[in-house]
């Protein structure tokens, strides 16, 4: 008897050990992908070279890409080979912190997802070591997730957008609450534009080197009650839209969730809706390098030209045309109906070209510069800000005594003053009460 019991114990403990061994193996399906080898053949955004590395779920694929030699971004690509035209980068791990050849993208047995240089230096990670991660998945909506044993997300790529939101992705108070544009095609650093979820509005800002603060050039207040504030902004797409019972009609839109609303009053506000005659589940919203906002849709079932730019927020037919974009007319230019129409010089208006630029004032001494006047123009910061109520002479002396001031804008009807630390695009408004005074050197 005793010996039987003993052997049973041995068998049980052997089983337990074996089971434990199998489970610990299965706990985290670890992987390592190395950034080396040939580049992919297809055309992708930013004219990049890329290497597919990591799991794929149509139409999404994890890749390393580079636009300058030996400086790679780990990103999620959207698009399929047969859909042809440009495949797009819709999420990225390491903006501004590129990695080199032979860098690794790996999921460790501890459940941490890591991007590291070949020498092991960690560049980006999910900080999920020993947090119960048992699985990794790239979901069909483009969300890369780490799961625990109950299927909950321990980490998700949807929580770290940079300039793009996919359908189902949110900006959140207490999380990432803004998008920041990309600097340029070649340069994957933060650009000057940001799309910010604020308590009372959605806002677009332009940050110029010369300006102490980012400048507001667009805002939307729709659907936010007096006592509530924005807590969650989510991009959604559904067939069940308020405009039609037809299933083939889809609505792509944002839903704004607000705090402090009594439950009986609560209905999340829908905004920025766009209707498509096809399933728009695979879409994205982006803050572009030009500071504009756009929706793009992708159709999985289409062979050629599967992409569509379905809406541009600042456009000729909306309340704000492209003249509201700070850099629409380059360094300096007069804009009308989304077009750059003139270069304002001290001697009057001349034809606009990319070379149009205000003469640099290098001296801070008031005796070495003067102002020239433009009538019927506004600066992009004027539309959504109130300026200061003051006399024009005060406005001018404020600019004169501030070396960084490049000129000032004044509305004579309401005595409102704006100091400009950046000129770029001026809009023609045809209103003789709206004046601009541009600093220019005497010689
Ligand atoms: C990358 O690693 C391979 C070996 O795995 C090596 O042959 C190659 O030289 C490395 N490339 C660079 C740029 O270090
Ligand atoms: C907003 O809050 C004030 C003060 O608490 C209250 O009197 C008012 O009814 C509220 N308004 C709404 C729309 O909830
Ligand atoms: C944000 O709003 C969306 C849509 O209403 C909702 O599905 C999601 O759960 C919300 N997220 C949070 C963290 O409140
Ligand atoms: C709205 O946000 C609050 C706070 O984040 C959350 O508790 C609530 O579930 C959200 N409601 C919807 C419909 O998303
Ligand atoms: C819309 O497209 C998505 C993604 O391809 C798919 O999961 C979903 O089932 C489609 N919806 C309908 C109603 O066909
Ligand atoms: C000029 O501005 C004033 C005040 O903002 C406004 O009442 C008027 O309609 C404007 N005129 C034109 C031509 O835009």
Automatic annotation (TrEMBL):
<dbReference type="InterPro" id="IPR051343">
    <property type="entry name" value="G-type_lectin_kinases/EP1-like"/>
</dbReference>
<feature type="domain" description="Bulb-type lectin">
    <location>
        <begin position="41"/>
        <end position="159"/>
    </location>
</feature>
<protein>
    <recommendedName>
        <fullName>Bulb-type lectin domain-containing protein</fullName>
    </recommendedName>
</protein>
<keyword id="KW-0732">Signal</keyword>
<dbReference type="InterPro" id="IPR035446">
    <property type="entry name" value="SLSG/EP1"/>
</dbReference>
<dbReference type="InterPro" id="IPR001480">
    <property type="entry name" value="Bulb-type_lectin_dom"/>
</dbReference>
<feature type="signal peptide">
    <location>
        <begin position="1"/>
        <end position="26"/>
    </location>
</feature>
<dbReference type="InterPro" id="IPR036426">
    <property type="entry name" value="Bulb-type_lectin_dom_sf"/>
</dbReference>
<dbReference type="Pfam" id="PF01453">
    <property type="entry name" value="B_lectin"/>
</dbReference>
<feature type="domain" description="Apple">
    <location>
        <begin position="364"/>
        <end position="442"/>
    </location>
</feature>
<dbReference type="InterPro" id="IPR003609">
    <property type="entry name" value="Pan_app"/>
</dbReference>
<keyword id="KW-0325">Glycoprotein</keyword>
